[in-house]
């Protein structure tokens, strides 16, 4: 039961990306992902950006094109979520979400 809980938690943040082909990327590697924010005063999205585990990795070769499709997962954000007062010690975040 504990293992199932950890697997579900790992899927809290799941992102699929396609990058130019990188031969040394494999399942189990960690990558740093920086995603842009829609806020001018905050160029980097602090919730979605961070270190991700590669859970799926497909290398695609088509004629002259080489790309890598990745599924990335992480289990937490370094930013507290707003509106969670009284729930698991949550408090108003500095970003006002």
Attribute tags:
6 strands, 1 helix, globular, 4-stranded antiparallel sheet, 97 residues, 9% helix, disordered C terminus, two-stranded antiparallel ribbon, mainly beta
Question: What's the helix and strand layout?
Answer:
Blueprint: H1 2-10, E1 13-20, E2 30-33, E3 36-39, E4 42-44, E5 50-62, E6 65-74
Antiparallel strand pairs: 1-6, 2-5, 3-4, 5-6
What would your notes on this structure say?
The chain is mainly beta. Helices cover 9% and strands 43% of the residues. It contains one helix and six strands, in the order H-E-E-E-E-E-E. It has one helix at residues 2-10, and strands at 13-20, 30-33, 36-39, 42-44, 50-62, 65-74. It has a four-stranded antiparallel beta sheet with strand order 1-6-5-2, with no helix packed on it. Strands 3-4 form a two-stranded antiparallel sheet. Strand 5 and strand 6 (65-74) form a beta hairpin. The radius of gyration is 17 Å and the shape is globular. The protein starts with a helix and ends in a 23-residue tail after the last strand.
* Overall geometric form: globular
Give the helix/strand class.
mainly beta
- Specify Rg, calculated over alpha carbons: 17 Å
* Side-by-side strand order of the widest sheet: 1-6-5-2
Hey, roughly how much beta strand do the residues contain? 35-45%
Number of helices: 1
Q: What does the largest sheet look like?
A: 4 strands, antiparallel
Low-pLDDT parts are 83-97
Which range best describes the helical content: under 10%, 10-25%, 25-40%, 40-55%, 55-70% or over 70%? under 10%
Distance between the first and last residues' Cα: 32 Å
For the secondary structure, the number of strands is 6
Mean pLDDT across the residues is 75
Series of secondary-structure elements, N-terminal to C-terminal: HEEEEEE
């Amino acid at each position: 039961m504990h293992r199932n809980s950890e697997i579900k938690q790992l899927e809290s943040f799941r992102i699929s990306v396609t990058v130019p082909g990188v031969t040394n990327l494999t399942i189990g590697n960690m990558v740093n992902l920086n995603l842009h924010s829609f806020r001018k005063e905050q160029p980097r999205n602090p919730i979605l950006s961070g270190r991700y585990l590669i859970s799926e990795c497909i290398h695609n070769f088509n004629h002259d094109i080489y790309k890598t499709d990745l599924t990335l997962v992480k289990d937490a954000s370094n930013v507290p979520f707003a509106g969670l007062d009284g729930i698991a010690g949550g408090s108003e975040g500095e970003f006002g979400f």
